[in-house]
Amino acid sequence: MVGAALITGECHLQVSAATQKNPISRLWIALKKDPLFSIVLIFMLIFVFLAIILPLLSMIGASISEKGLPLFVSYLSSPVYQTIILNTLVMGALVGLVGTIVGFLFAFVQVKLNVPFKRFMHIIALIPVISPPFAVATATIVLFGRNGSISRGIFGVRYDIYGLDGLTLVMSLSFFTIAYLNLAGMMRALDPALDEAATNLGASKWRIFRTVTLPMLVPGLASSFLLLFVEAVADLGNPLVLGGNYEVLATRIYVTVIGLYDTTGAAVLSFILLVPSLTVFLVQRYWVGRASVVSVTGKPSGTPQTIDHPLVRWPLFAIVMGMCLLIVLIYGTIIHGAFVQVPGVRYDFTLDHFDFVINGIGAQAMRDTTFLSVIATPVAGLFGMIIAYLVVRKTFRGRNLLDFGTMLGIAVPGTIIGIGYVLTFNSPMTLNLPFLGEITVLPQIAGGRAFLGGALAIVIVYVVRSMPAALRTGTAALSQIDPSIEEASISLGADNAMTFRRITLPLIRPAFLAGLIYAFARSMTTISAVVFLTTPNTKIMTQQILNEVENGRYGNAFAYCVILIAIVMVAIGVMYLAIGSTTGAERNLRGGGL
């Protein structure tokens, strides 16, 4: 009996070992144990692979193909392309540095100084998030260009704003919000007891800032710089509008595809652009993962100290308020320019620009862009929350790879994603939708070659570009929720789906709302990722704005921008009304009343 039992146990162990080595058996066991979790996980893995990884691999494959490899030698040995690569790196570094400094100043004044108009400064700092990427560039040309209403009209200076200096100014103002939100959150999270302890030991305010506050903000400063660097080198709209003779890789890729129809050459340039972008992203990810600056071991204690010294408070307040007024001036120019005959030249009131947008070709662009963004927004928000839940709450092999693959949607420049989609998917297809008519999904272009574009591709790209923000906000929110709440729900008989829908999702509602707002704003204002995917049957507002700017019709471009910003603000208000309020059940959950 004992021998038989031992033999049976040994056989069982052998079968178990064989099962563990067999991935199909492991998958089958997982499906039987938790079918919903397994199905959702498999779906998310397939989506991330097809929508992000596969286009990226296609771009890399085309760049190292037999036709692409000689282009590497040609481009990297050419003085012209060497200059373009250097221009890209210099621009990224300058925008990262200036944008981080501006964001730090806004955050420092907001958190550490006792000054008026903080709410005003906070709202102004958020405005660039909901505007098209080149709206600021176009308004800056009208104000400070060669015939600018301020540079030429007031000071009589024919200033050439096209080039690196103009790009640094415009892109720093467009992207500094990232650094501001990042650093303001870190400053608020610092334990005031540290400042109090340093003060009790006789340290001055300057010494406390230099030896206590600043070292704790170093990870945030480095992270903000790296994120802004990636945003700058990936940006397409501003260099197209304001670059002039200062050419960067993103604009060269655009010209290579749109002007030369050379997808292989564009893939090679995309690979070159991918190297610094992905390197910086990996460094930033490694830095954030490794850097650990612990300032609290429990609930922060003490009263936050503010700096009241007049020689510090009022000069910094004046600097930040001056930047706020500059942003107000720029966006005021956008609004004003939409209602005058020729912005910066003729100031007669007119509604012709809005008539052109609303009753002309802009009507389809508004309809298509809004419709596709409305579709992509809840998908991106929900997918981001689901992946965050899988990464934080579940344990499985490849969890970090799923997180990393999702984050590539924002780490990889939009132009590279667009090129990847062009190279990956090439089957023509059209859809006949109610109220919208026929929309091209995978259109056929001249020469018999298929070219991915239109509705489906644009929606997928919107989702891919917006999921990372929802993932990060969801991950941060879930990390603050005690898992025992969900465990209690499951112990009472609820399955994982009901627990996620009834318990987890209400608790992370603010993060979900933030993900939705970001997804809609990003979808409405993006250009680089979809510029190669638009077709005559599917029009995007940012593409139309770019066309108007390139043709010098700034009034029409400003009218587009005003309408786009209005749509985004209305949508944000609707989302706040729909899901932003906190229900009594959620308050009970947060208060432990489960």
Task: Write up what this structure looks like.
The longest helix is centred in the first third of the chain and has 34 residues, at 79-112. The chain contains 25 helices and four strands. The radius of gyration is 26 Å and the shape is globular. Strand 1 and strand 2 form a beta hairpin. With 594 residues, the protein is mainly α. The chain has helices at 2-21, 23-33, 35-63, 69-77, 79-112, 118-126, 135-144, 164-189, 192-200, 205-234, 237-242, 249-258, 263-290, 310-337, 352-359, 362-393, 399-411, 414-424, 454-479, 483-491, 496-507, 509-525, 541-550, 554-580, 584-590; strands at 340-342, 346-349, 429-433, 437-442. The strands form two sheets. The chain has a two-stranded antiparallel sheet with strand order 1-2. A two-stranded antiparallel ribbon has the order 3-4.
Q: β content, as a range?
A: under 5%
Q: Please work out how many helical segments DSSP would assign.
A: 25
Rounded mean pLDDT score:
81
Structural class: mainly alpha
Strand tally, please? 4
Low-confidence stretches: 1-20, 292-299, 427-431, 441-453, 582-594
Helix content: over 70%
Structural shape? globular
Q: Order of SSEs, N→C? A: HHHHHHHHHHHHHHEEHHHHEEHHHHHHH
Radius of gyration: 26 Å
Q: Note the gap between the termini.
A: 51 Å
Q: Strand order, biggest sheet?
A: 1-2
Largest sheet: 2 strands, antiparallel
